[in-house]
Amino acid sequence: MTEHKYHAYGAHNISNVPQFANLPEEDRFAIDVVSRVLPFKINNYVADELINWDNVPNDPVYTLTVPQRGMLAHHHFEAVARLVRDGAPKDQIDSAVAEIRATLNPHPAGQLEHNVPELYGERLEGMQHKYRETVLFFPASGQTCHAYCTFCFRWPQFVGDKGLKFASAEASALVDYLRYHPEVTNVLFTGGDPMVMSAARLESYIRPILEARLPNIVSIRIGTKSLSYWPYRYLTDKDSEDVLSLFREITGNGLHLAIMAHFNHPQELQTSAVAEAIGKIRDTGAEIRTQSPLMANINDRAEDWSAMWRKQVNLGCIPYYMFIARDTGAQQFFRVPLVRAQEIYREAYAHVSGLARTVRGPSMSADPGKVRVIGPVELPGRKVMALNFLQARDPDWVQRIFLAEWDENAAWLDELRPAFGETRFFFEDELAAMHGNALQELVFSAR
Ligand SMILES: *Cc1c(COP(=O)(O)O)cnc(C)c1O
Ligand code: SF4
C-alpha cells in the first residue's frame, strides 16, 4: 500500500487546508480565538476522510476536532476576541488565556493530588494507581495525539518528547512498582496517545515489562485514539510492521493485549483504512475494546450509539464504556444531564444484540470511582435515581447501589443529593478519611 504522509494542522497553518479556507470568515475568526484556549490540531486524514464538509459546522467529527464559538463562555470568547481584533501584544493575550484556562478545571477528580503512587518514598509522577488491579502509565513520549479533541481535559499535560533516557528511567520505575504491588494485574498505557510514539520508543517501555516476567501482570492495555485519527499507524507508516510485531510479541508472551480504542461517532468507523487497521491489530492476537464520552453536539442521539456499537461488533471490536463528559474544558457545550444520558444509553442498548451489550454506562469517572447511572426508581409517592460503582477507590464499594434525589438537570456526581434527606452518600466519610490521611491512602493502595 502506498504510504500516507501525515500532515498536522493548527491555527497557524490551517489556511493551507482548502476546506478551511472556504469556511465563512466568522467561523475562521472563531477558530482563531477559541484555539488560543482549547487545543486545536487536525490532520489530513481527519480533514479529508472523516469530516463530511457538506454538513459543517454540524458535522460530528468537525465538532469533535475544530474549536467553535459556543465552546467558550460568551464573556470569555468576547474577552479574547477583543484582544485579537485589537492586535494586543502576545503576553497580554497569553495572560488572558491563562486566566480563562484556570477556570476550566483542567485537573478534575482529584487526579493530581490523590492518585500518584510512591516507591521508596518518592512520587512516581508518570503513573496513577487508583483502582487496585490497574496502574495507569503516562509515558512521557506519548503525551500528544494525532489530532486533538475539543472536549479533551488532558490538554494541560500535552508536552514535547523528553527523550529516550527519560523513557527508560520511567520504564524501570514502572517495573519496580509492579514488582512491589502484586495486587496489580494490568498496566494501562495512556496519554495523550501512546500510539504517537515510534515503535522503537513504545518497545522501550514494553520490553522491560515482558522481560521482568512478573507473575501478577496478565494484561497490557493501550488507550488510543489512533484508529480514529490516524489508522495508517497500523498500515503504511514506516514502522507500522514493527508496531504489529511488538503487539504480536506481547500476546506471544502469554499476555492479554487490549487496545482501548476511543471512537465517538459511527462516522469514524466508515473508512476502509480503519477497517483494515482493526483487522491488522486483531491478527496480532490483541483485542480491541471501545469507549467514548457522551457529548451534546456530537453523539447525543441513541441512534449514534447503537449504530456505533453495531459497527464496532461488525468490525471485530468489543464495546466497553460509555462515559459522561467530565466537568472540565468546554463542558457547558458538551454537557448532557445524567437523566438524559441514561435514557440515551438505555435506548441504544435496547437496539443492539447481546454481542454489543458488553458496554457499561453511562459512567462518571469521579473522585471516588467510576459511578454508573443505573436509572430511575419509582417508589410510592416519589422517584429517585439509582447509581452504583463500576470501579472504586475502595473495592468494597463496587456494585453497591445507592440512591440520589431525582434531578433532571444534574450532570455530575457533585450535583446530586442523597435521597431521603440523608446528608452524605455511603462512601463519603471513608473518602474524606482517605484524602485526609496520607498514611491511610498508602495502606489502601498497597492492600
Ligand atoms: C477507568 C480507569 C481504570 C480502568 O478501569 P477498568 O474498569 O478496569 O477499565 C484504571 N484507572 C483509572 C484511574 C481509571 O479512571
Ligand atoms: S485523543 Fe484522547 S488525549 Fe488526545 S485530545 Fe482526544 S481525548 Fe484528549
Keywords:
447 residues; 17 helices; disordered C terminus; alpha/beta; binds iron/sulfur cluster; binds pyridoxal-5'-phosphate; globular; 11-stranded mixed β-sheet; 37% helix; two-stranded antiparallel ribbon
Short description:
This protein is α/β, with parallel strands linked by helices and 447 residues long.
Distance between the termini: 50 Å
Main pleated-sheet profile: 11 strands, mixed
- Total strands: 15
Approximately how much beta-strand content do the residues carry?
15-25%
Average residue-wise pLDDT: 91
Helix fraction, binned, reads 25-40%
- What coarse outline follows from CA principal-axis ratios? globular
**Largest sheet, spatial ordering of strands:** 5-6-7-8-9-10-11-12-13-14-15
Heterogens: pyridoxal-5'-phosphate, iron/sulfur cluster
pLDDT below 50 for ≥5 consecutive residues: which ranges? 438-447
Task: Walk me through the structure.
There is one protein chain. This protein is 37% helix and 18% strand. It contains 17 helices and 15 strands. Helix 8 runs parallel beside helix 9 (199-212) and helix 16 crosses helix 17. The protein has an 11-stranded mixed beta sheet with strand order 5-6-7-8-9-10-11-12-13-14-15. Strands 1-2 form a two-stranded antiparallel ribbon. 41% of the residues are buried. With 447 residues, it is an alpha/beta fold. It binds pyridoxal-5'-phosphate and iron/sulfur cluster (SF4). The site of pyridoxal-5'-phosphate (PLP) has 9 residues, from strand 5 and strand 6.
